[in-house]
């Protein structure tokens, strides 16, 4: 009993400032909710200000009223059904509070940081896309070595034909002209590939400079909205650089050139002085065509390997609000989310504390008897009630004593009543025995009339 009274005294003392503490938490949540709503509203002006204030005030009142109900009713519930019902209602209310307030509080706490995180993630995406585009372009430049090797092989063959080592006819005949034709095509292709080296390097350098500027915008001080605008401009420039790098890749050009090397062959007229010489030239030309096919297939395979490389991902910067950024990157801002939710749901801990305390009080009282639980004030109240009952009984007895008595003659005459058929049979009255105790005339007996 002493423990139960001590707990009750503690609860009575805590009740003196619990509403004030709950009001402070509600107001704090309303302030952060106002900041979150202000970041969502695109318009500025009196109407937007009033809308944000009205929403934040509604949130503060809802939180205060909700937790006031729960703090008073849930700990007082003794039956399991009522407690389960209130638990469900409390859970639904907590979800509603998180939906209407907590995420806005998180936006106010970490909104700018979340937007900066979005900018940093976008920079990483652009950097990967730039590096991929540059890698593909540089890989395509490596095809120049394959083209150079093919050109050199055709030039060597033409030199051998000029000395008569291939067809047996020295000079610049039909076979020589065919070999020079293909070596010149490959030389032109090699020149085109080499001309792309400097533009690729310049584009990649420009892209890195844009990335550096975008990182500077992330790290700069000032409103994140202003920096986001400049960031968007730089992202457009960088997207153009990435598209340029994709266009500078010579892999498609080499692939088409390999097809043309095989298909576009202009056969020269055989100019041998005799039929045997012309037959030798024809056989040599067929061998050269087979060599051209092999070289074309080799170049085509090399170009296709470059074309099969994964292309750079399509990256586009999209402006995002603080609330959306907090939700998208919630995993990076767990402390902010925890603080935003705790400021709204902290009274739930108080509810559990009160429920446990009230249960302990009821448990202590349940183990005691009525005599053990009776206090001095209860005893005094019981004694006062007993005195009132005794006084009422004494007044009733005095009223019976002082009531008027009927005359003796009338009292001796019996009243004749009709017999009750349902009444039990009563034996006939016998005359009193003078010797029996209590008979009329016996010593010490009172008259029956007096009785």
UniProtKB/TrEMBL annotation:
The keyword Membrane applies. Residues 408-420 have a biased composition (Low complexity). The chain crosses the membrane at residues 12-35, 47-71, 83-104, 337-356. Residues 404-451 are annotated as: Disordered. It comes from the Bacteria. Residues 421-435 have a biased composition (Pro residues). The keyword Transmembrane applies. Keywords: Membrane, Transmembrane, Transmembrane helix. This is DUF4407 domain-containing protein.
């Amino acid at each position: 009993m002493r423990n139960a009274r001590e707990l009750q005294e503690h609860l009575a003392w805590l009740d003196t400032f619990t509403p004030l503490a709950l009001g402070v938490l509600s107001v704090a949540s309303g302030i952060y909710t106002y900041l979150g709503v202000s970041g969502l509203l695109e318009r500025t002006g009196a109407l937007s200000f009033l809308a944000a204030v009205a929403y934040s005030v509604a949130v503060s009142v809802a939180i205060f009223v909700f937790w006031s109900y729960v703090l008073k009713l849930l700990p007082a519930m003794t039956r399991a059904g009522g407690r389960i019902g209130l638990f469900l209602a409390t859970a639904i209310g907590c979800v509603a509070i998180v939906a209407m307030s907590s995420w806005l509080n998180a936006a106010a706490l970490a909104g700018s940081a979340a937007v900066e995180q979005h900018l940093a993630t976008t920079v990483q995406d652009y950097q990967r896309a730039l590096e991929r585009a540059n890698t593909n372009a540089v890989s395509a430049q490596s095809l120049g070595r394959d083209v150079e090797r093919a050109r050199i092989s055709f030039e060597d063959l033409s030199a051998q034909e000029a000395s008569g080592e291939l067809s047996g006819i020295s000079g610049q005949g039909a076979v020589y002209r065919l070999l020079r034709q293909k070596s010149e095509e490959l030389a032109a292709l090699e020149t085109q590939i080499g001309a792309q080296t400097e533009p690729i390097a310049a584009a990649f350098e420009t892209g890195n400079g844009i990335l550096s500027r975008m990182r500077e915008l992330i790290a700069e001080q000032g409103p994140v909205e202003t920096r986001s605008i400049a960031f968007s401009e730089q992202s457009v420039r960088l997207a153009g650089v990435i598209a340029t790098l994709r266009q500078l890749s010579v892999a498609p050009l080499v692939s088409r050139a390999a097809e043309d090397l095989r298909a576009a062959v202009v056969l020269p007229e055989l100019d041998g002085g005799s039929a045997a010489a012309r037959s030798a030239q024809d056989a040599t030309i067929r061998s050269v065509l087979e060599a051209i096919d092999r070289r074309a297939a080799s170049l085509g395979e090399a170009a296709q390997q470059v074309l099969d490389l994964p292309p750079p991902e399509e990256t586009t910067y999209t402006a995002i609000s603080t609330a959306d950024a907090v939700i998208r990157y919630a995993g990076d801002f767990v402390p902010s989310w925890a603080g935003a939710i705790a400021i709204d749901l902290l009274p739930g801990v108080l509810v559990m504390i009160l429920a446990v305390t009230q249960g302990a009080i009821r448990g202590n009282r349940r183990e005691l008897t009525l005599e053990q639980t009776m206090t001095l004030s209860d005893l005094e109240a019981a004694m006062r009630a007993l005195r009132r009952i005794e006084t009422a009984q004494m007044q009733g007895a005095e009223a019976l004593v002082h009531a008027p008595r009927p005359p003796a003659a009338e009292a001796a005459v019996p009243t004749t009543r009709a017999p009750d058929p349902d009444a039990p049979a009563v034996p006939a009255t016998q005359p009193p025995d003078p010797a029996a105790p209590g008979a009329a005339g016996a010593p010490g007996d009172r008259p029956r009339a007096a009785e």
